[in-house]
Input
Amino acid sequence: MLGGVAHGPRRRSFATKIQRKVYALAYRTAISYRFGNNQVMLTTPQFLEHGKTKLLLTLIRQLKWTKKAIGGVLFVPLRERKHLEMAARSLGADVTVKRVREVRVKDLLLRGRVVFERKAFEWLIQKYGLDKLPRPKQDPMKKYRKLMELL
Output
């Protein structure tokens, strides 16, 4: 064996790290923007327990939350909801379900609506300091009552 490789391939990572405070600011900005435009809804855990595909499809069509209309909907529960995830998987691109620990800023900005479980939203507030949210332009409880009537 004579010779060798002078400048062989090396593994490199071009990933950049973002400071924790900057990432927290990005979360606060995304949630604030969505909340100010009435694109965030808070629900109870019982609402997210309904995992029937037909009910979820009816809800999305009635409220016009399809991907074509507004860009789809993101459901954010505190813990894993298998029934909701299976129903969302069968609906395809209209619905995404991610636990609160898996949600990234990009996820919050890509979808048209974000439906949080109350405990998940409180966890996000506690972790990233979202204590100064703007007041919504409409009463979100009216929408919540409408959601419960559909189910």
In short: The chain has one domain: 20-150.
